[in-house]
Amino acid sequence: MTDTGPWWREAVTYEVYLRSFVDADGDGLGDLAGARSRLPYLADLGVDAVWLTPFYPSPDHDAGYDVSDHREVDPRLGSLAEVDGLIDDAHRLGLRVVVDLVLNHVSSAHPWFVAARAAGPGSPERDRFHVRPGRGVAGELPPNGWPSIFGGSAWAPFGDGEWYLHLFDTEQPDLRHEHPEVAADAVATLRFWLDRGVDGVRFDAAGSLTKDPTYPELPAGWRPGDPAPYSDREDVHEIYRRWARQLAAYPGDRLGVAETWGGPEVIEPYLRPDELGQAFAMDPLYWPLRPEPWRAGVDALLAATARHDRLPAWVYGSHDVSRAVQRWGRDGARAMVLLMLALPGAVYLYAGDELGLPEVALADDEIRDPVFRRSGGTDRGRDGARVPLPWTTQPVPYGFGPDGSTPWLPQPAGWGDFAVARQVDDPASTLALTRAAVSLRGTHWRGRPAQVSWLEAPADCLAFRRGTDGPSCLVNLGDTPIDVRPYGDRVLLASAPVDGLMLPGRSTAWLC
Fold first, then answer.
1. pLDDT value at position 469?
2. pLDDT tens across 163-175, in order?
3. Which pLDDT tens digit goes with each residue over 261-289?
4. In the UniProt record, does the keyword Cell division occur (predicted)?
5. pLDDT by residue (tens digit) across 6-37?
6. Torsion of CA 78, 79, 83, 88, to 10 degrees
7. What are the start and end residues of each CATH 2.60.40 domain in the chain?
8. Parallel, antiparallel, or unpaired: how do β-strands 482-483 and 502-503 relate?
9. Hey, what CATH class is 111-165 in?
10. Is 2's pLDDT higher than 90?
11. CA-CA distance, 224 to 161, in Å (whole number)?
12. Which of 169, 231, 287, 414 is 20 to 30 Å from 264 at the Cα level?
């Protein structure tokens, strides 16, 4: 069975959370040289592409997502030459490279915002940002009640009666993409990285690039996740059409993927023929281990993406959510990776999920995520899924950095039990399962019909084929073992031992 369409249509992409992947120089931060040294590991894992989280200059108020220069490299993380070398090495190994562009906002240390802060009310320098006069007698109140995604108000005062919008942290002021300089600079940034040979771009906070210019209050009863005047507006798509034309001007099927949060109705518009190739399917991260949400959700996403001859981009894990083991349990996480890899579409794996890493409980004074601070400690933030990876069984830093170095987030005792070195030769390990699944996906699932044919199955199970023939995927979400024989004569791969042709609960098998 051969693949059809561009390389990314059913690619498996591995998110390298750069700060937590490999620290080559011992300063505690993962870096480009470290990531470059582990490209053979990723090639051996069998993935098609590597997504690098931001490596641009940043004060690090939000782990690099507060960018002060979009066309340079943070010297703590490497150099432009190191980026070029990584791209070259990846291509020699058959890996594509996707970079993360954060274009909704900049750092408060960006020259544009430094100038805006100094220039004063009504100045042209402030016109690049969402700036409004405050309410109250002396402008002491925010312009409206919009909330920050990280907690608290989405507005911060300049101290002179005007306020600026920050949908995330106060150190991340939102840009106005209607401003011609902002629009031109975004295109220049996109072309800069495409010229250096990157194969794709993830657009961070994809839906937030335009806001209702009247800045209306949210309706009564509004809850996070409801439609908002600052997210997924129709006018945002003109920006993506503009950027899609840039992507199409380069050879090699360059990918644009939107970081979207929401159901099919949110995802579909980004996939129109003149827009992007992919938009993240994040909802499955929160689907419970019950058959009906998965069956209905898969059908809805396949139908929505098919309307534009696209496929879903299934997100198995990410730096923005808790670890798969935390969400689904150890057995459930192993079962879900086989389920996602059998579905039509692309799959995004998060660094460390191939090791079955658990969420780490950090002490209050160890947490760096601004979500924790802005929520007043009620939200623990995302750092529990960002703890640096264990490569060896030796004590801290477990091969993440040179012996004696201190990782930017603390690794717990026993972290070496999950190390690559411990799992690499263990056929029962999560690493071995992931490697086998990615390999078998290429020979048994990839390139098959995009339709899912659901098969009759017990009440707590899912079973399907793609098209009318080929392998079947059987997912037992219940507690009682089930007989696999109605679904195939041979087990290709299973997330748990199939004893006497009985598939245990919370497990998945591929059969033919």
1. 87
2. 999 999 999 999 9
3. 999 999 999 999 999 999 999 999 999 99
4. no
5. 999 999 999 999 999 999 999 999 999 999 99
6. -110
7. 450-511
8. antiparallel
9. alpha beta
10. no
11. 28
12. 169
Q: What gap in Å lies between CA 20 and CA 252, rounded to an integer? A: 30
Threshold 0.70, pTM exceeds: yes
Q: What is the 3-state secondary structure (H, E, C) of 256-282?
A: EEECCCCCHHHHHHHHCCCCCCEEEEC
Give the tokens for residue 241: 């059409």
Given CATH 3.20.20.80, say whether it is the number of domain 12-105+180-213+229-374.
yes
Joined tokens for residue 417? 């039990």
| Domain 450-511 fold | Immunoglobulin-like (2.60.40)
- Which alpha helices (DSSP H) does 93-141 contain, by range? 111-119
- Strand boundaries in 158-224, DSSP class E: 162-165, 200-203
The 10 Å Cβ neighbour count of residue 414 is 10
Query: What b/e readout covers 433-459, taking b as 16+ CB neighbours within 10 angstroms?
Result: bbbbbbebbbebbbbbebebeeeebbe
Question: Which part of the chain has CATH 3.90.400.10?
Answer: 111-165
> Where does the chain hold its CATH 3.20.20.80 domain(s)?
12-105+180-213+229-374
- Cβ-contact 107, 59 below 8 angstroms: yes
